[in-house]
Amino acid sequence: MSKRKKIALLSLSIPAFLLIFIFMIVPLGNAVRVSFFKWNGYSQHMSFVGGENYLSLFTDDVFWRSTINTFVYGFGSTILQNIFGLSAALFVNRKFKGRNFLRAVLYMPIMISGVIMGAIMYYIFNYENGVLNNLLNLFGISNIYWMGDGVRAVIIITLINSWQTMGFCMLIYLAGLQNIPKVYKEAALLDGASKIQAFFKVDLPLLMPAVTTAVITNLIGGLKLYDIIVTLTNGGPNRKSLSLSYYISLLYFNDEKAGYSSAVGVALFVIIFLVAVPINQFLRHREVEY
Amino acid sequence: MADIQEKRNGKELRLPIGGKVKVSIYIISFILILLYLLPVYVMLNQSFREVTDLTPRLYLPARWTLENYVEAFLDSDLLNGFKNSIVYVVEVCLLEIVLGGLASYGLARAGGRISSTLRTFNICIMMIPSLSLLVGTYSLMVKFEMINKIWALSLQTAAIGMSSTMFFYTSFIVSISKDLDEAAAIDGAGIFRTFFRIIMPQLKPVTVTRLIMIAVGAWNNYAMPTYLLTDSRKATVILTVRKAFYTAAGSVQNVPLACAMCAVALLPVIFVYVFLQRYIIEGQLDSVSK
Amino acid sequence: MLKRRLETVIALCLVSSTILLSACGTGKEASDGSSAEGGEADLSGKEIEIATYLTGDTLEAYKGVIADFEDSTGVKVTLDEYGDDYESTMKTRMASNDLPDIFETHGWSLIRYKEYLTDLSGEEWAQDLNDAALGVIRDTDGKIYTLMTTGSCLGTAVNMDVCEAAGVDPWQIETWEDFNAACDKIKEAGYTPIANYFTSAGALANAVGSWLNYEGETYDLSKAMLDGSWDWKEYEVVLDYLQTWFDNGYLYEDCGTISQTDAIERCAQNDCAFVVGIGTSYQAAVTAQNPDVTMAMIPICASEEGGARFCGIGEGASFGIWKDTEEMDVCKAFLNYVAENADPINAAAGEISTLPSETTKSYGMQMMEEMEEHFPDVFYDNLWDRKYMPNGMWSVFEVAAGMFCEDQSDENKQKVIDYLKENYSDLYETEHVE
């Protein structure tokens, strides 16, 4: 390839990277600057405090709690979505009347905004007069305080997120399943493998490429989880179901700690970057296989 | 008849489950549908109630009313919100698909160290939530008077989503044979012509998938728009609906009205989904089957 | 002077209606007419932006007032409804130094918004404001930055029906001891005595004055609080008392995750008796959900026999003008208009009017009068946190309320106090540096 051609090709990516530069790198620089100040976010007065904001990170329980939550939301829902998605795909892949309808219904919640979903889920998981507890009462079970402690709230949010966005995985696996040539499996069955063995030995390995797409998309969605938490738990009880994204906006707009908020933002940036590196390695390996 | 049906099912089965397959399939389907339609039921059920109706939310309204819908439809903000949301979604889709597609083509075809570094960088920043840069982005956009401008929000959203669009495009373009480009080059086509005439049609499945994800994401985007579109004339649908759930100023939160607003806001989404679901789902299936 | 203005408005309305009737004019001409008669500047065609945090019925009432103003002057008003996001949005707008021409100051006209507001002490309506209002919004140098049409009166909300069913007479409650005795009775009768929710800062802030600030109470620390020397040791008394609510099971089990909406709903279902430290708009909201419930207000209890039974007075609906507005005349005209036509807003908000122009007695006013019949010596003070705490403490209390609700052990109580103290000195320092 001529050098000129190569430069021409590379220059095609300039507008895209320019956008990324303006809206990610410049704000990052700005955030790093602000993170060295004590600032309430709106006053014209900022005071320089050096690395104090970063030091406070280490003693801030809410920060660590939110970091763990962010990972639970990110990786927890990725795992659950893949399990749910694969099961649903296997189920919908059977031929039965109404399966297209079922497929459509299972995919539908993805279209519903997290803000609306969270608001509705609030009424489902409410302690008194919640729909779920209404249902349990029908079976003679007394009310359960679903959002009673932070751990439970985080688990429920993860479940709801996985439930809501599972349809995407389902489609990806469905496509994968439909592309597996039948002969492979028949061969395995002829060799005396049981159906379960055939699934694990034949179907699953061939589905692996689909997994990449699913995992990446789910991780992006899970790590930035924000809107469903806002309307479902508002971060509670006692700020124990916060994601880092939500914590950052609370710090900025609620607690008036814009400097510290930036420090948390920079920390989140770094944490995600560190997580992305091994994932990147894995992805590059996979690409070679094409 | 039932026997034949069952036999056929038996043959098509991919999962090793024997026995009364058909009955269990329908039982499972039924449970799944209930599970997936419960929130929609709760929402609709609420929306037909009067404010004074405090009966458990699981059961049907004590008195049915359509008043909430009348009010929701008459709400000019909601209509305006639709308009803004459509502009916003179209802008983000165009930006991401055109710029992202071009950039990916350039990177995938150019090869070499620069392109490889850029791609690694891209994967690393792909998962970073936009809220981590809230303080930086916000103060930057204030400085350049980009608050309350839908185009500015579109640019910001596109910038954040650009890296995943590029990721999916590059891994796809790598698998397209270079012979196509070379043939086009021999015919005298320039880079742009090659991309838009030859490559872009090949990318249709990925484009469809990305379009859906970008559009759904932008339509439902809540975090950044809350802070960047503070003028209610510029508010998107989701922001308008969120307002209906506000409780400030001690007024009664009109849950039934809020639910009616949700239902109205979801109407076009569901409408589009029902009519396009075949294409949406098939498109996504195709994108993975490559 | 006021009379003349009223005449102007009446003339203006007459002129505009005549023109409308004869169907040969627009709003522009109408205000032309008024400017000729009233000697006012021509405002038609000008535009102003107004931001509001009002929602629901109150917002509708406000919109009505704005529409009338538009009709009578020809001014074009853009209304930004920020609702729950009002404070964050206003903070972002302060950061960009681009504020709406008129915005609500919701209790922060002096502490937070002062540097962005216009001094309005020269306006005519400023003379009409009653003392309760002036006590809240007048700065130490006599300046007034906001038109306060209503005050919110913060006391203890009572569901009379539940009290009656449990055989409790709320009018006999004077001290916290009495209050707990009443709660015991209510609990025995099978109701939840207290519907306070710990997702709000109010749970730890609104009633605090009754232990720490007033004459005849356990402590009088007002001075130390204001000069920044308070060390928060005494705050333990407050937490110790609140702990009795948890220990005795007065509260809802989910008091750490519910919102005001749930408290309103449950009260409307006659499920709970009291909410301590809440404005009269709560009672208004309950009766809107269930008109059959009888609600009342009693003051916040005293910590000692003979101590001050108090109510907090805060800014209700209050409107300020951005100091850098380009349409100062229009803004001032709008505030004048609101001052004379605030009735519907007050009625919808269920708060206490602070202007003599009120003609219909608001719901809040009725509550207050009923309370004063039984407690003639109620002590009124500014909202505790606005008066004694630095700017920014409200959200600190919100976090602290969550912490306390989760765990009331001595160790955690100390943690809560440390947290409050640390932020208090921090914020106090910030506020007094400038």
List keywords for this structure.
heterotrimer; B: 290 residues; mainly alpha; MetI-like fold; 13 helices; 0% strand; globular; disordered N terminus; C: 434 residues; alpha/beta; D-Maltodextrin-Binding Protein, domain 2; 7-stranded mixed β-sheet; 5-stranded mixed β-sheet
- Would you state the CATH class of chain A? Mainly Alpha
> Helix segment count of chain C?
20
Walk across the major sheet of chain A and give the strand order. Answer: 1-2
What count of domains describes the coordinates of chain C? Answer: 2
N- and C-termini, Cα separation of chain C: 40 Å
Q: Tell me the fraction of residues in β-strands of chain A, as a range.
A: under 5%
Quote the CATH topology of the largest domain in chain C. D-Maltodextrin-Binding Protein, domain 2
Largest interface: A-B, 116 and 108 residues
Describe the oligomeric state of these chains in a short phrase: heterotrimer
The radius of gyration computed from the alpha-carbon positions of chain C, rounded to a whole number of angstroms, is: 23 Å
Report the major sheet of chain C. 7 strands, mixed
User: What pattern of helices and strands is seen along the backbone of chain A?
Assistant: HHEEHHHHHHHHHHH
What is the architecture of chain A at the second tier of CATH? Orthogonal Bundle
The percent of residues in helical segments of chain C reads: 40-55%
Task: Sketch the major β-sheet of chain A.
Answer: 2 strands, antiparallel
Briefly note the structural class of the backbone of chain C: alpha/beta
Helix-residue proportion of chain A: over 70%
Distance between the termini of chain A: 22 Å
Structural overview:
The complex is a heterotrimer of chains A (290), B (290) and C (434). By secondary structure, chain A is mostly helical. Chain A has a two-stranded antiparallel ribbon. In chain A, a hairpin with an 8-residue loop joins strand 1 and strand 2. Chain A starts with a helix and ends with a helix. Chain B has 290 residues and is an all-alpha fold. Chain B has one domain: MetI-like fold (Orthogonal Bundle), CATH 1.10.3720. The N terminus of chain B is likely disordered. Chain C folds into 2 domains: 186 residues, D-Maltodextrin-Binding Protein, domain 2 (3-Layer(aba) Sandwich); 216 residues, Periplasmic binding protein-like II (D-Maltodextrin-Binding Protein, domain 2, 3-Layer(aba) Sandwich), CATH 3.40.190. The chains are: A mainly alpha (290), B mainly alpha (290), C alpha/beta (434).
